[in-house]
């Protein structure tokens, strides 16, 4: 199984802690002014319960991630990537950079139902691909507008 991504881990802890706080009226009212720092404190305390998080992660992984990663095997992915790079003339779809470190991006991210098919794949330079992450193309272009 894949390692637990740090972001997911922290996020899961925080969500968990917030749920607990909100379901307890007494703690909820007392902690109100200190809500944010209490959530951080409680989440840090929970790092001790690594086993619980591992169980949650493994459930999450089985439910939401495993199938998506295996929608295509590694050899097909290599072939497909090569086709995409050739088709796009080794040019980044987002910034027009040619050459350099190029990757293949899912325009509609896998996490949002996008598939590993030619019409959903484009060449992206590493810089753009890191910025895009799991945004859709429209969301990314808007983000680029606001940040550059
Ligand atoms: Zn680019």
UniProtKB/TrEMBL annotation:
- Which SMART domains does the annotation name? HNHc
Q: Which UniProt keywords apply?
A: Endonuclease, Hydrolase, Nuclease
Keyword presence, Disulfide bond: no
Source organism, top-level taxon:
Bacteria
Q: Which Pfam families match?
A: HNH
Q: Where is the HNH nuclease domain?
A: 79-130
Q: Which CDD domains match?
A: HNHc
Which GO molecular function entries does the Swiss-Prot or TrEMBL record give? endonuclease activity; nucleic acid binding; zinc ion binding
Regions annotated as coiled coil: none
Its protein name is HNH endonuclease
